[in-house]
Amino acid sequence: MDTLNRETLLAAAQWRRQGFKVVLATVTHTWGSSPRPLGSMLALREDGLVRGSVSGGCIEDDLIHRMVRGKLEFSAPQRIAYGVGADEARQFGLPCGGTLQLVLESVADPVWIDDMLTQCGSGRRVARELGLETGGIRIRPATAEETFRLSGNILVSVHGPRYRLLLIGAGDLSAFLAQIAVKLDYDVTICDPRFEYTDGLHIEGAAVVGGMPDDTVISMKPDCHTAIVTLTHDPKLDDLALMEALKSDAFYVGAIGSRRNNERRRDRLALFDVSPEQLQRLRGPVGIHIGSKTPFEIAVSIAAELTAVKNGVKLPGELSIAEAKESAEVELCPVLSGMQQA
Question: CB of 74 within 8 A of CB of 106?
């Protein structure tokens, strides 16, 4: 569960226990451009206090106004849309004429919030089913393939552990990348058995461990919410981690180094029962090409690639000719539109 939604639910539960009326808003549909993704949550307290976000602030202002005036009182969840027409899009600040649909629900008993957060905190992936006709809530285990959806009168939101990032090797690059990843809401671990690199190292929000890289990868049991990046330049350490990482379900496995060094690395790994299919998963040199030179710039390039892969976005080098052409046309649309209006 991302930190923003977690903090939103924690606030909703606390306010309800304090006796306040609380309404929870969830983004269920978007058309065109929208500031927040599906499943984003906002908690509104009867006096206008809010936690979370469903837009850049414009829709929140309208909801706060309605909440304070007592116009968000209902027995069953309600659907509400913003930005349906061009005038509303301008009024509520939705870019490019985007449209946003929310489901609003009153928080009666926060026990379900406690249950869901406890399970997520224990590493479980759970689904919350909200019946829009009755307001009934069911918390159950989520399947691996399940995602957020609104099907008929049932809203299903999937919540689970935060994405994890394991960095092999301590140093400036690891420290910079860890700081960025923490801000991106990753649960970050830095692994380096070399005491001279880890002694005194402290990155707020990240754990530092001193075990062997392969043992650390195995103990983490990487799943489809785990990314692993090797940064030591030392084959004895990087290769050990990669041998285990490439055999795991990690959604992203990357290694730093030049193209020549990465080809050599692939040759070495092939000698240790790493299959050609598994080697194809290795991203090396890690990061996207942005002309990066300094450790912080390299960290930015790695974080950018990590974000693209996590969000299922193909990078330029991964696009087919047709996909590249379509992407270029999409990027040009706003420019052409502006020229036509001028």
Answer: yes
The number of angstroms, rounded, from the C-alpha of 259 to the middle of its chain's C-alpha atoms is 29
The whole-angstrom separation of Cα 53 and Cα 74 is: 21
Tens of pLDDT along 45-84? Answer: 999 999 999 987 778 999 999 999 988 888 899 999 887 5
Give every CB contact of residue 131 below 8 A, 6+ residues apart in sequence.
77, 137, 153, 154
Q: In the Cβ-directed half-sphere of 274, how many Cα atoms lie within 13 Å? A: 23
Residues 98 and 48 in one domain: yes
| Separation in Å, CA 31 to CA 58, 66, 79, 152, 280 | 17, 24, 15, 18, 35
- Alpha carbon 78 to its chain centroid, in Å, reads 27
The range of the structural domain enclosing residue 63 comes to 3-159
The count of domains in the chain is 2
Q: pLDDT tens-digit profile of 241-259?
A: 999 999 999 999 999 999 9
The amino acid present at 332, given as its one-letter code, is L
Cβ pair 217, 229 in contact under 8 A: no
What mean pLDDT is predicted for residues 80-101?
67
pTM of the model: 0.70
